[in-house]
Design brief:
Six copies of one chain form a homohexamer. By secondary structure, chain A is of the alpha+beta class. Chain A has two domains: about 100 residues, OB fold (Dihydrolipoamide Acetyltransferase, E2P) (Beta Barrel), CATH 2.40.50.140; about 180 residues, no CATH class. Helices cover about 40% and strands about 20% of the residues of chain A. The first copy, chain A, contains ten helices and seven strands. Chain A has a five-stranded mixed barrel. A two-stranded antiparallel sheet of chain A has the order 6-7. Chain A starts with 11 loop residues before the first strand and ends in a 25-residue tail after the last helix. Chains A and F meet through helix 4 and helix 10 of A and helix 4 and helix 10 of F.
Chain lengths: ~325, ~325, ~325, ~325, ~325, ~325
């Protein structure tokens, strides 16, 4: 089966792919005819595709995020590759293919990522802090197994959120060893909780965010996480006035650093300062790494990266 | 008894005043001598004062926010009035003066303000909304009787917060009548709750804010109010997912309008838009009214007003 | 006759509509053929439409803002409704339809709006203020009967400008009663004059702004209104140095609050502060109300609203 | 007579100077004694001075902007020169000194500057433009003879405004020759009118601005100049709709380039673009020239210059 | 031969033109057919063109920046002129046409522009300054003969960079005469060097920038020019610590005035201040002149000009 | 010998200290008397001090950054400790004290820091990169042994610059292991070179910056470092066009991330992105650690920290 990344112009191929996007459009002919404007993807990348002269049955059969078997040919259109689909059908159980093989994923298994997060939580010494983190992890757990960290910005793939947390935890451990004045419990807790309410802010399936939820738009993951902590404290009988509750809420509320970026307060504890910069470092480097990965080796520049103020990145020559 | 506002240069006077500020300083003479740098105030205004050659006993006797009887003379120093204190003693119970007579206060009695707020709360039709507002009002009630609305910006006096709420409620009633598409329950609830957590954010006594509390600095009244709503819902068995909980949290979180001003989300319901502009209108006009009130009639311009982008206001001639 | 708002997919219909926009386009076929890209509207809304295979006569017959009788069918194109026009002809006098029935309009009759504005003007006590306002109202009167308040931002419909003024006057009366220190003459005059020069800034017909006039681009309605006041004073023998002339010019010049928004000076009288916030409150709430009105009841979110920093508004559930 | 710029530490001297600033202060001794905190100036610069033990008569005799004869000694205080005044008396007619010898002044005689401005005005070809410029020049003439161009920013000295205009006219002539597509009438008129209403915006005496006038604060020189043009057109029977009136108003309204800097509209004619950059070039270079002039030759850096974003300027070595 | 600027609708014509842009596109018909989407230009302007039904040979024959002979007809498409190409062939040597006749060019011959720049360089008195300028001019010389000054902003045509320098030198001479305190050597050197590294920053051919070079993106012309000066000093044995080296580097580094516009330091010498404003004045007026030139006389407004904050310019009526 | 940090009110003490600041001032008495306004420091902190009635000899004897023996008494002045100096003399060789014992210093010996930097340099694999880094390190070496990293912002103490580099190298090694796609040579080189030209930008002695040098103000350390690389390449015969030269210059030029913060280009290689965030993380955490260290354990809040947007930091309770 041919992987998307390996297709070159003029290839004729047959294979299974994910119908990542599908729209019915009309040609400008009179009368106009329906065709499909499609994005096909697998775990190695994605390509746009056209399927001409679609029937009413076709329009009822195919839908976004479905798995399909495609016979097609690769063409060049405006200097980019594009697939012209000859034949297409839905995958069936007999095909023995699973959707998870076709989606972009963190490079570590979700179950291992969540395991690391739980182990780290268990290692938190302070009872109140550990209890609150456990409560929030339990609340999010099912989604932590597959949620991306963002819609497009960074770690936008299956289990991207858990992967982001785990890489930050590695960096956090290093910083806490390098600077022992930091409270390691709070650094760990802040890393685990800072984006945990993205599981409530975003609607996502298979690592792809479709949109923001209503609470996501009206409250946002920053204030949502603060409410989760309030909830955890009340449910676990921890006094709301506890310095630990206060400190954890400060960590999540301040982690975007400025009001302009959505934080109602700015970092004012050592751990909050550490959290913001650990988060930035991991997110920005991941954006760069992902952009370079998905740019063909032959090209020196990635496309522009929104999270890097719309700058493209130049591939450092070896 | 001579009121501060009536004192003119060369007046010799005796009267009771509030020692609003007091600092011990030293003259530059050799050896240096201690003196008091003082701000005396009553309900009509305040003046700076000096008391020279203070003794060790004086330094132990007098303290800020104490009530004192003063014999003094009014001088002009660098074009401003200043009191030179001849004699000063603490007020005693026999003097029959009460500190509340000497502080700046909202023009309506606190008890009446809180009564209005409670009545309005009781008039809220939706059970969930009313229950949550009642919970928060109870939590704040004792402080609502006397807290100012801010440190210096606006309504910075005894019961200023409750006064701000009540004037906003009047305006809110008008707007809801003018635009029936607004949900009056939510407008009322938003007005009552928007600044309610200033009672946790600020440390205040007698209408004067001494500083921000630790939660005030690390969380801020906006996110604190959101947590109060979470707490109210849990304690009163209202589901956290209720649209009403969400709507109330959105109101308090968005009422500063932009991230730059501390709101993690921007107004995205009709009532949230209304709340922000009702709040601005009331706060700005109160700043202007207070500035004009405390500027002598003979002067055309008020001092610069920080909350109006540091502009002075010109007194419209009659 | 079927109203635009009631049309659903597959409807075949005949009716009169306004040709709000009309452009001749060419198909991509070889040779290309002309077709009309059209927006049809009535007082309840608007829909895009196509008319294929148009003749030379058609291209000479139809023009934007004309009234037409249409036979058509409703189709769905890219998830939106679109009309395919079968037949179309110009409306004739015999049809007994009038263009004003087909345009979006303020909910109060223009004649009543202007009546209210004139009555309020007559109630201004100060002779100089009243005379200047009357002069400006006379200068604008004919256009006040139908001008919108803006191109797209807010009150963008027939008599929208007068409607905006009248709602602001209601709010102004309330505020003047609530805060008697405000000079009611100046508040009323400021409200009536603040946008009056939009009638010179914009070119509009039937409540629709086609573009900005040359003075609109080179001077802008803010400085134009200031010049109107200068002109009124000279023509009516009021000294240019009068405090009233100065005060009125300050009101119009400062009503956008900041230089960034086009005001060369910032509000520095109580009435100027009031005017700016009354204007904001009315304009923002009208944007929200209009956006909710023109969004189908079944949808929770309005489209993004440019005047609300591009935020969509969520419909508060009943 | 010793000039301020020539005084060095330990000099004992007698001379006539301008009492540019004078404030009565009190020492910290008990009882405090009055002394004068003074700024003495002549055309070469200024120095601060103290006069100790002043009498009641002294306090009634001396006033700011008076001319005095001083006997004093130069001391060093906190690394700066400061004069200790031994004796001081008011200058009398017999002294034969004139205040204009003691103030900082443009390097060209005011009468010659105004002559150049009038000649240039007379050379304007278009009748409407010339008439309006003449009207405005007449309105300002008396003040044009001595007004500074700003409070502190640039050309802050006697006849600084006229000097600024004349230098800009020289530059304007050059640019019009270099780029004949520019309308020379409009460039000349724009240069002459752009700051003409500073004569109404500022209160100044002897080249020193004491403060902004009430119209200066509430309207500002930009909108004032636009009103002057309206007034000129009406008084001289030029139609307000004339393209020339419009063009001149656009020039003055847009000359600060952005809303942030006080222009309600941005330059949108070739001449308006030229005017803004000619104004900037002249003003910025004059700031630099003045700062270098008043910095001792021995110092490499001027003080920070507010109009150059608070940067100091380094003296280019010869 | 018909010039682009003279073509009107319905013209049938034959002529030589530059194929400024060429893209192969496909029609929406089934199967899609290839056609050329073309921009034809000569020295008077440019027009878009279509050539339908292109063959494989056509696709191999034609390329951007080639010279072609075209038979075509002018049509109107969406209110704009567009050429429908009937026949097209490559120009041959026998046609006797040269590409330089077909491109937009500075109004002065490149050889004369470079001659002026070299003469001015030779007139620089200070040896170090002159030597460094000569070194840089030599480094850039070949490109100075034809490079534009920018991609689209200003002077975007053949030899536009040299033309910009020469006009600035004229202005610089004037300013140095008007203000003799300026160091004329440094003003001249600054003008010549400020944009000289655009020849390294941009990839350009025939006055058209195709893109930024890698050093252009990673270093930028400002820091590149500073490195050129370092290089010149080392190669010509001028000490790097020389005040002249420092002064020249400061000139190029600061000429964009603020960090926001790419200058790592702000102008802090008189000559650096002069350079920035001379550069702005020349660039902005050239944008305006070019925009007016390429707008038909019959139109009052130019298109929006990006370098003037996206404002259109109004043609001052004669 | 009593350390500064241990002094409490009323202590009488004798000890050696550094005269970190010294100014001669005058009392307000008549005639005024000279006294010293002093800052005494040792490695544990600093305190202000007064020495009254100083003689002419005293004024010639003492100077800033001198080492002195002091007999004094600790007083409280405006709630802060202050030393009243009874006797003071210069330290002599016989006292056996060395100035380096009295200054604030990085917690690692300078020689070890520089050793680490040189070892890391030696480990760079690429010849061009290593050669350039070595050249620059040699150029700076003597100053690397003692220069602070900034005037006040962060690492403002003896060898602070080398300490900052070494901590960043530790973090860089971690990141390169965590993300092997990064070019470790370039990360190491970027870290070592990014601030190396601070040794030319700042004038510093004993870890204290007195001011910026002339090249520091006119060029800045960012463009200076870029010139060092140009110089290194030329002197070491590495082609200026080498991708390595380009890459290193990009690293130093972009490390402040935005134009607003002084970088003429933004990070556009993976290593440049890494460098900026490693720099931020280390600098910000060091500011916090230093601020907490120098705040008494008994206080919850540090003073405001300029580099953290003027926020104070709250000490996380243990």
């Amino acid at each position: 089966m041919t992987q998307i990344k390996q297709l070159v112009s003029q290839d004729e191929f047959v294979g299974f792919y994910l119908l990542k996007e599908l729209e019915v459009r009309q040609t400008n002919s009179t009368p106009p005819k329906d065709y499909f404007d499609i994005v096909l993807s697998d775990s190695t990348g994605q390509l746009s595709a056209k399927m001409w002269d679609v029937s009413s049955t076709d329009k009822e059969t195919f839908f976004p995020m479905g798995l399909v078997k495609v016979r097609g040919i690769v063409q060049t259109y405006r200097e980019r590759l594009q697939i012209k689909i000859g034949q297409m059908r839905l995958a069936t159980p007999e095909d023995g293919v699973s959707i998870t093989e076709f989606i972009r994923s963190a490079p570590i298994r979700p179950i291992d990522l969540v395991h690391t997060i739980k182990n780290t939580t268990a290692s938190i010494v302070n009872d109140e802090v550990r209890t609150i983190v456990e409560y929030c992890i339990n609340k999010a757990e099912e989604k932590l197994m597959h949620y991306p960290a963002a819609k497009t910005h960074h770690h936008a793939y299956y289990a991207g959120l858990a992967y982001h947390i785990v890489r930050m935890l590695e960096l956090g451990e290093f910083i806490c060893r390098q600077r022992p004045f930091l409270n390691a419990d709070m650094v760990r807790a802040g890393i685990i909780l800072h984006d945990v309410a993205k599981t409530e802010e975003l609607n996502a399936r298979l690592g792809v965010v479709s949109d923001y939820s209503v609470p996501g738009k009206l409250i946002g993951h920053i204030a949502l996480a603060s409410s989760w902590i309030t909830e955890a404290a009340i449910r676990c009988d921890i006094p709301l006035e506890s310095e630990r509750v206060l400190g954890l809420q400060h960590l999540v509320l301040s982690h975007h650093n400025t009001g302009e970026w959505g934080s109602p307060v700015q970092p004012q504890t050592a751990e909050a300062v550490a959290l913001h910069y650990i988060d930035s470092l991991d997110a920005k480097l991941q954006m760069v790494e992902d952009a370079l990965d998905s740019t063909p080796e032959s090209e020196s520049w990635t496309p522009m990266i929104r999270g890097l103020e719309n700058k493209a990145v130049y591939r450092t020559p070896v």
